[in-house]
Amino acid sequence: MLQHTISDLVVHKLIKDQHGPASVELRAGTMPVTASAQRLIDYLCHYYAERLGKGYGKFEDDEDNFPMPRFIRQHVIEQSIDFATLAQLMVQHLQVRAEQEQLASGGFVLFARVHNGAADCLMVALITEVVGTAITNGLDIVDSLHLDMGNLRVAGRVDLTAWQHGAERYISFLKGRGEVANYFKLFLGCNDVVIALKETQKLVQGLGQFAERQQLPPEVRDQLLQRAHGYLDELGGEGQPLSIDAVARQVWPEAPERLEAALNDESLALSTGFVPDRRAIKPLVRFKANAPQWKLEFDRSSLRSGAVIYDKHADTLVLSNVPEHLKKALLEG
Predict the structure, then answer these.
(1) Considering only Cβ atoms within 10 Å of each terminal Cβ, which end of the chain, N or C, has fewer?
(2) Do 41 and 138 share a structural domain?
(3) Would you say the pTM of this structure is higher than 0.70?
(4) How many structural domains comprise the chain?
(5) Coiled-coil segments, which residues (predicted)?
(6) Sign for the pseudo-dihedral over CA of 234, 236, 238, 243
(7) What is the H or E stretch that residue 295 is in?
């Protein structure tokens, strides 16, 4: 498992039962990065990256109601507050948002500034405890409390590097149950408005990358892309939002979990719940290209049928079955 560089780490406690009031228990100052803390953060970052169903966005502009960008700017840019103060301000704002959501529940709130390669990120996770079983040195069986990482439902990440470079989206969060995900999104100050055209283009890109990485035979690749086009065109025509798991089942029923994992890859940052833009799905079934002296567009299936032949050795493209009107126009050239 990849080891991350942890520059700052704080854990506070959010105290709240569902349908009840919220309060916080604050730690005084940051904590040392021990071997146990390192293992926890490495596991958290790995688990978060692997989790499916994330939302993506950027900070809201209204910093009075969504103060997170102001807190982070004070720490990262202005350096007027330290990380301990940042974490305290954040957990106090989380308390306010948790009060507004009846279904929110408490737990340990972990704040970590983590470096992973070139990315400088702020991780926030709400982790609950679960009762397990342990065996003592005297070989007795006892109850043992431990952090329930396997059921992590509330977590988010701000890519501070992308934020400072003006990226379009730099916040991600676990979508989980709608109500809980929404209150945590509000806590992060995340505007996750989805632009369907751009998301559809990313989906098309992800499908193409999957077909390439699977090294599918041309005819199998064409079938996959044709199925994707048909399904997305149907959703777009009916105005129905898509889910990535449904796309995977429809498009690659042979192994939907592999396609779902590819489309949920964090590098693609693909949202879910948008209505496919039918303009953006044409590349799934059609080639379109141009050069200074020509433009060309044809179905991918033409390469299989022989209507279009590409000779890579001669660097030529041959079109067959030229229609009469085009012949006439060419002869009159």
Answers:
(1) C
(2) yes
(3) yes
(4) 3
(5) none
(6) positive
(7) strand 294-299
**pLDDT per position as a tens digit, 35-84:** 999 999 999 999 998 887 788 899 999 999 999 999 999 999 999 999 99
Q: Name beta bridge partners: 156.
A: 124, 173
Q: Does one domain contain both 21 and 161?
A: yes
State phi, psi for 252 to the nearest 5 degrees.
Answer: -135, 65
Amino acid code (one letter) for 112: A
Alpha-helical regions (H) of the chain? 35-50, 68-76, 83-99, 160-164, 178-188, 196-213, 218-238, 244-251, 256-263, 301-305, 324-332
DSSP 36-64: HHHHHHHHHHHHHHH-S-EEEEEE-S-TT
Q: If you search the block for the tokens 């940042």, which residue do you land on?
A: 86
Cα–Cα distance, 308 to 287 (Å, whole number) = 11
Residue of 266, 272, 211 lying closest to 244 (CA atoms):
272
Model confidence pLDDT, tens digit, residues 255-264: 999 999 999 8
Q: Are residues 184 and 39 in the same domain?
A: yes
Q: Is the dihedral of CA 76, 77, 81, 87 positive or negative?
A: negative
How far is it, in rounded angstroms, from Cα 194 to Cα 227?
24
Q: Which amino acid is at 204?
A: V
Based on the domain organization, do 125 and 34 belong to the same domain?
yes
**C-beta separation of 59 from 191 below 8 A:** yes
